[in-house]
């Protein structure tokens, strides 16, 4: 059982006394849990940081004598899960106490984490049941001084551009991108978390990569990893549909270059036919 489910179990307690438990997603991986007595008094309040947990997983740990209501906000992708134990009730006063408490809890999390997709020009999207943001348009996050990606992305069916920021990892990057993925000009040290499927090009130049491990196996168009700290091509894609440019790296061995390149191998101004 993970951290969140353990916390819910603890809030319920062994006695299963009558009352109400209110669970709310506060951020990408943050949850608030409040326990109220049958009289409406706040018994306990906690905030938990954990990986996304589905509603079904939460409901599965609730006792048999509880009634559960789920309130979803499709705009923000958040859910409120309200459970009553042994005849407990969520009356108006308890609801107001929940809202007041959560407003204070939410202030603890960074502004970056509490942003809505619309704040980044993302208007055509949905959150799946696991909290991943699926986007049906281009995502353009360039030059926003980001130190980490603001959401956990799932599928993005257009371009995903996060170049010219201060990212150190690709945590939260999409699993699949319909067109181009560009994370160039950051401080990224690893391609772990990079999308494993792209529809067009992949650009990760001007970072601090020492390995290409984590890159997709197949790139339909160009793959650029210029100006990194690569000494080998370990982890490079197996197939590139355009140019494979790995210039301005301290390469010692070229042995693990892609087996198939439809365009050119490019290294420090020299072009070799694939």
Q: What's a concise summary of this model?
A:
The strands form 4 sheets. The protein has an 8-stranded mixed sheet with strand order 8-10-12-14-16-18-20-21, with no helix packed on it.
Structure in words:
The structure is a single chain. Helix content is 11%, strand content 29%. With 274 residues, it is mainly beta. It has two domains: 3-106, no CATH class; 115-274, Leucine-rich repeat, LRR (right-handed beta-alpha superhelix), CATH 3.80.10. Strands 8-10-12-14-16-18-20-21 form an eight-stranded mixed sheet, with no helix packed on it. It has a five-stranded antiparallel sheet with strand order 3-2-1-5-4, with helices on both faces. Strand 20 (264-267) and strand 21 (270-273) form a beta hairpin. The chain is elongated, with a radius of gyration of 23 Å.
**Beta-strand residue fraction:** 25-35%
Task: Give the CA-based shape.
Answer: elongated
Which structural category do the helix and sheet elements fall into? mainly beta
**Mean pLDDT, as a whole number?**
80
